Each structure stands twice: as structure tokens, then as C-alpha cells.
Amino acid sequence: MSTPSSIEALSGLWQPSGNLKNLYFGSGCVEKHLLGALPCPSSKVIVVTGSSLATKTPLVRRLETLLGEHRHRGTISSIRQHGPASDVERAVQDVLARDGVDTIVSLGGGSPIDAAKVIALRLRQSRGTPLTHFTIPTTLSAAECTAGGGYTGPDGLKVGHRAPEMGVAAIFYDPRYACHTPVDLWLSTGVRAMDHAVECMYHPCSTEVPWKALSLWAVRELFECLPQARDSHPHDETVTTRLFLAAFASSGLKGENIKGGMGLSHSLGHALGSPYGIPHGITSCMTLGKVVQLKARESR
Prior knowledge:
globular, six-stranded parallel sheet, alpha/beta, 15% strand, 300 residues, two-stranded antiparallel sheet
């Protein structure tokens, strides 16, 4: 039974997630640590990503080479923006058809990360065995931070799921894997991270520590680093890594027993995003400022 995270300003409960075991960050952390973090030396790995990263950048090939022929069991690169249900279902069936796969590595933004979460959930339901999920984010959407995700149904509406099996076991914030992210996408998903941090402040169940404290830190980092990234991305790896960590701080320690969604800006973003094909970073650019104005008026 879920316990409210926080009922009064200085009274409540924060329950840490049991999924995340390792968070690696810094230039080259994928090459340094990914193989050693696998469940076992003989692990069999599926890579889940999008077509742009697979066809327009060397990142997928670099990851496949790192894994090697004896570990790499295939790459699914068909996940489109907002994760259409048909893409996710094909990916699920693809993984189910491969024997011995125990690990999935998602590479990209929110859509491939969420798709990998759904695949992990479906495999647990079908086979009764867990699938270890590692992720290498290339945006600041912070999809890697929660044990929940979803896909877009045929009607254009988002279908969400939340379960412990959907949690990520390891995150790799490597600026070398963000170097091909277009600057507009990088900055807009940074506003998405800002959306997480700001909506934490008025979420009815957010706790003073660690989520609110880290969100305040995240806001400062985002305010400082996003303007710098406008001119320096992707060349300044320090700024890139700071932004990755700010995105994690904005959403990574909400607590397992948090109740409800994020807030009005996120709700509006979901209503606008999938049905109209608008990236969630852009929806946050559209909604967050207006929602903050509304909240400020209501608090007078």
C-alpha cells in the first residue's frame, strides 16, 4: 500500500527506488564501465534506439563494436518519436524471438528509453524473468529517471505504465554520446528538465529532501549551463555533463511512493505532445512559463 510522500511541509516519507544500481558520468564512461556493469561476462544484449542515431551518427555502431559479436544480439532502431504502439509491439516481439537475451541497452532520448522500459515489462510478464535495462541518454528529457513509461496508441493518446520492472539499472551520462544531438533538441529537452524541477516545488507529495533540495540545485545548474550550451554544445563536455546531472537531479530522486503525475505543465504537455506530434521538450517551452504565472497568481 502506498504511503504519501509528504503530507505537510516537514512531515512525510521518502522511499528510494530499488532499481538504479549505478550512475556513471563523464567523458568516456560508456567505454570504461559498460562491459563491467553487465550482469555477467556472457550477457546477451539488445540495443534499442531510433533511426536517426542509427543512420546519421556513428554512435550505434560504436556501441555495437564495444559489445562485441558474442554479446550483441541485435539492434532495434525503429523507435519513432513518442513511441507509436506499433513500433513498441514489433520491438517486443523481436526481443521475445531471441533466446538468451538478459540485458537491453537503450540509446537516445525519451522514446527509445520508454520503449525499452515497456519491453522489459512485457518480457517479465511473458517469461517471468527480469531484463536488465541500461541506458545511454542523448537528451535531457530525464526519461531514464522513473520506473514508468509508455507509448502512443493509434488514437494519438499516450498509454502509460508504471511498475518496478520498468526501472533502469544503470545510467551512463557520457558527453561523447550527446555530441551528435542537435543544439535545438538539446536545449528544448533542457527546458523539459527545468519543467521537472519547477513542478516539484508545488507537487502535493514532494518531499523537502532529497527531491526539492536537488531540484533547487538543478534549477541553478540549468539556468547557468543552458545559455552556455547554446553557444558551446557539443564541444564543451563539462557543460554537457553538468546538464546531464541537473536533468537527473530534477527527476531522479522523486521517491517510489510519489503519488499522481507531475503537474499542470506536464499534463498540458502530454495533451499536446503525442496527439499533435510535438516533442515534449517543445511542449515544456510552450507551457511551463504560463503555468508558473498561473501558480504565482493563485498563491497571492
